[in-house]
Amino acid sequence: MPGFPPLIDQHCHGVLRSGPSHAAFETYLTEADVPPPTAPPPHAGGPPPPRGVPPYDGALLTGGPPPYPGAPPTSAYPGVPAASAHSPAPGTTGPSVSYFDTQLGFALRRWCAPVLDLAPHCPPEEYLERRTELGTAEVTRRMLRASGISTFLVDTGLPGPLLTPGELAEAADGEAHEVVRLERLAERAADVARDTHTFLAELSDGVRESVRTARGFKSVVAYRIGLDFDPGPPGTSEIYSAAERWLDSRVPGGRLSDPVLLRHLLWSAVRTGLPLQLHTGFGDPDLRLDRCDPLLLTDFIRATAPYGTPLVLLHCYPYHRGAGYLAAVFPHVYADFGLSLSHTGARARDVLGELLELAPFGKLLFSTDAYGLPELYVVGARLFREAMTELTQGWTRREEWSHKDAERVTAMLANGTAARLYGL
Amino acid sequence: MPGFPPLIDQHCHGVLRSGPSHAAFETYLTEADVPPPTAPPPHAGGPPPPRGVPPYDGALLTGGPPPYPGAPPTSAYPGVPAASAHSPAPGTTGPSVSYFDTQLGFALRRWCAPVLDLAPHCPPEEYLERRTELGTAEVTRRMLRASGISTFLVDTGLPGPLLTPGELAEAADGEAHEVVRLERLAERAADVARDTHTFLAELSDGVRESVRTARGFKSVVAYRIGLDFDPGPPGTSEIYSAAERWLDSRVPGGRLSDPVLLRHLLWSAVRTGLPLQLHTGFGDPDLRLDRCDPLLLTDFIRATAPYGTPLVLLHCYPYHRGAGYLAAVFPHVYADFGLSLSHTGARARDVLGELLELAPFGKLLFSTDAYGLPELYVVGARLFREAMTELTQGWTRREEWSHKDAERVTAMLANGTAARLYGL
Amino acid sequence: MPGFPPLIDQHCHGVLRSGPSHAAFETYLTEADVPPPTAPPPHAGGPPPPRGVPPYDGALLTGGPPPYPGAPPTSAYPGVPAASAHSPAPGTTGPSVSYFDTQLGFALRRWCAPVLDLAPHCPPEEYLERRTELGTAEVTRRMLRASGISTFLVDTGLPGPLLTPGELAEAADGEAHEVVRLERLAERAADVARDTHTFLAELSDGVRESVRTARGFKSVVAYRIGLDFDPGPPGTSEIYSAAERWLDSRVPGGRLSDPVLLRHLLWSAVRTGLPLQLHTGFGDPDLRLDRCDPLLLTDFIRATAPYGTPLVLLHCYPYHRGAGYLAAVFPHVYADFGLSLSHTGARARDVLGELLELAPFGKLLFSTDAYGLPELYVVGARLFREAMTELTQGWTRREEWSHKDAERVTAMLANGTAARLYGL
């Protein structure tokens, strides 16, 4: 990809200090929070029904001997041979579904194997062995330098033994800046606050301090309550009451999911003028995807418009066309396509093409949303470069775009808009 | 398509024993439940306004002579020449809109004409004549054997003079298994039940018996109440009351649309461990498409996760990307793409491509959703084979996928995952 | 594009009588209603917070010196150097985001520059200079005649110094007919009505008169209250009360957004049998896109079905697949793709392809939705011709469609269905 402009990764996370183990590696290739269906089926002596869901008592309805006794469900069909009772769900026993068998898994084997001196698409086992052989530090260094990313904006709000932005920059021979996760800020403040008063003061200080130290804010309100929240800023007494309530009921380390406090955080960030990144679209199963449609933010977007604070919609998939619309009609709205390219692999150009429909080209930003594995920087960067190159080549070949425009727009997405937006 | 693996059709219906007539043939090419707009416009002496909608009385508002008298609406514009009063809706009179003029209609003429020794894309009339000449049995035999499908999972819950699974298997020289439609089970039980008690007992017996005789369950709860139903299992007394209410008010042959009983059916099925197929996405106008977004099932999916029972989302279009997400993050969720390919014809590879974005490859299943016409097996199978071949050829040509992976994933979709899931 | 059939533009608006200025030209390339982010950030002495949103009072929460004083927000961070306080939102100061840098802007420079004797993709400045040099009348004449459009259906409900349908027809050497915007009809009636009684009489007369003078109705109910309105017709006394309430509270020139009156308009139009165009999908930021999903019209569509009055869903993007479904299952539903192609430019064939999935081919209509700039006729027409040609060439090359069918369907979309529907 000669001549492709250097990349600013406007949204990523740290990489692991060591490991992961072969078994854990695969879990970084998915947004699922549990292993793929390889375990024996739960009704073969597996876990009980979910908490809060009583064993289903259809039995009582027959008047005869209970056809559906309580757990374990295997015994539900006394007359049915065990083999047959099992066969219904062989999907949970047979050859496993592997998270390597995804577009992300295939893209990783394609683009990252050569960075470790292996053939593209080599088997996962071979890849993982070579990874162990080289060691985490060397793999990280190789991947980061092969990614073509010069600047990293790191959301430091994820837990785990991750490289700091400074360490990341060093490994990459690049530059790194912090993006502060609002909810984490509040949760940290709650961890140390003596009372409501000091909690809220701590929060204010944290937001203010972030303006000095960070390049933007990030919110995962989508995960906590969805995006259809009350769009206006909460009032002072509301905030006090909510803070009191939350602190009283919070278990140590507990997550913030109080709507009033979440809105207080958002509005505090909006008031600073720093770009505010908002998770939208798909993520792990902790969220309800249909409540993460960025269009649900419309009233919040309208309410914040007079402040001019840039709102950067992250990920967006599968609602990226709606995100493109928002970027088109609201001057302060931008859209990112990080996770959406990494996870769609060979389909990345189709997804990027859809984002390049309504959105003004100066409103779109590259990112990787990489987390844990340094491979994810390489995958995100390569997929974007390939997708953008192929899309624009098609358009210039058909004379729909000029070559000069193609170059100019590519530079905007790669780094231009991010540089402008984050003052880099 | 040499070397393409044999297909397991994981969701289909029977084919007609005889016919259909030329006129009726077309109705099998659409999800509409009425003919295309060929009839004279209703206000030229057509049907009265819909039941429950009173003739519109804007007339009363003018104080002058009624501009909008009651039905028939043709007379609404006394001062307007009849020709002009008609011309507004010539779409309902002029050359008809034909359901042959759809992607499905074009695909059928392309792929099925040669099976009847005709040229691809021959005119519909020619096709229908040849069909009559050969006779239903011969057409059925030819189509089924040309389809490349070796195994059929037949939802036996649709009415009509259809071949049984056994007859289908014989005509196809293949294998057929039953999938039990839950709502039909309840409706049949209601047809014969003496009282609430025997109804519920019959229902329990039916579910239990199905585990012995069938490979899975199917639910059309999407049609009856949409997918945003209360996710948990109903309690015993709730079920009793609902059953009593329904049986009391039911006209013979009446459909089940009671939410409590529908949920009771779903949870009864989940408890068995047999794969449960759920209609999602588009279908006939009986449903509200926006209430059939599979994402509306998220809480039900969460509630059922501990059981491990596979949930297979059918059709999904145009919400197939959301279905792919669910398949990606919930181990027990699978997605099917039957109807979505058949009805999009020349666009099938684009639709399949979108499903191949987030969904792990081991979570996707081929089907035809064929119903009535044996042609629909050929169309569904050919479109899948063409689409999958073309997609993967594009990806291997660009080196995004390896050839070996392409073959492996094709086999998963064609039959591997279905074999595993249904114990075939 | 030799041999491409002449076009009927089934939905457009007038073009400007003069101008626009260079600065204003760009605003016609976007659905945004404000300039792109070029102004200094509002918190550098810009506008106050939005009306109704009090200055955010997080300050009160700290107990210390207010970290977030009232407006102007620049002073919010006394300890932070001004440069840094600014740098957060450099996006609102630096090189501007231009609405020329959009798919529509690129398509305009490609297709319209040659009409003005310039090279495709010439710089915007050069284009605008040449435009001024030639003068509005000449540019208009050239564009309209280059567009390949023979007949224009003009929604006359937009304000501004626009050419009348007659003038448009003359400049284009074509034919033009009126489409009456229902809400404008009501607003005009309200402007002159003495009382509720005369208002409603005027409204009835207006609808009746339109049947004589116009080819269809148009509604922007999507903008006013969204598409999830009560589907049935309102009763007489309801209408009277609503009219009284609205007239009493209305400021001169005020828009109609009363749900009862909006529904009264829709049902009055449905009763006439004239095709009724409904805005759906994207538009300017006045609407909430998620409330403009055409599927929200499902119950209204069902309720109006017995009348047979054609309902034409306009634009539809990004919900065009749902629109295709509605066109497939409801005989009186049609879909238009005007705005959706113009604004997606090089991606138009992908968007059109998606609409050509479920919708019967006899249910789709070409339009440009051109407004203000005569260039938008050229862009809309060329993008459709290119997209349709390329799509069908791809399908015939793969033998998925026959050449004859491709020609036939192209003619349907270009003019056949519109001619039939509007009696042209």
Structure description:
Chains A, B, C: It comes from Streptomyces axinellae. Chains A, B, C: InterPro entries: Amidohydro-rel (IPR006680), Metal_Hydrolase (IPR032466). Chains A, B, C: This is Amidohydrolase family protein. Chains A, B, C: Residues 32-94 are annotated as: Disordered. The structure is a homotrimer of 424-residue chains. Residues 38-95 of chain A have low confidence and may be disordered. Chain A contains 17 helices and 8 strands. Chain A is globular and about 60 Å long. Chain A has 424 residues and is an alpha/beta fold. At the B-C interface, α2 and α3 of B face α8, α10, α11, α12 and α13 of C.
Q: Which secondary structure elements does this structure contain, and how are they paired or packed?
A:
Three copies of one chain form a homotrimer.
Chain A: E1 7-12, H1 22-25, H2 82-86, H3 103-112, H4 124-134, H5 136-146, E2 149-155, H6 165-172, E3 175-181, H7 182-192, H8 196-213, E4 214-219, H9 221-225, H10 236-249, H11 259-272, E5 276-280, H12 298-304, E6 311-315, H13 320-329, E7 333-336, H14 338-342, H15 348-358, E8 364-365, H16 375-397, H17 403-422
Parallel strand pairs in A: 1-2, 2-3, 3-4, 4-5, 5-6, 6-7, 7-8
Strand ordering within the main sheet of chain A: 1-2-3-4-5-6-7-8
Q: Find the structural class of chain A using helix and strand composition.
A: alpha/beta
* Span between termini of chain A: 24 Å
Relative strand content of chain A:
5-15%
Please tally the helical runs of chain A, counting DSSP H or I stretches of 4 or more residues: 17
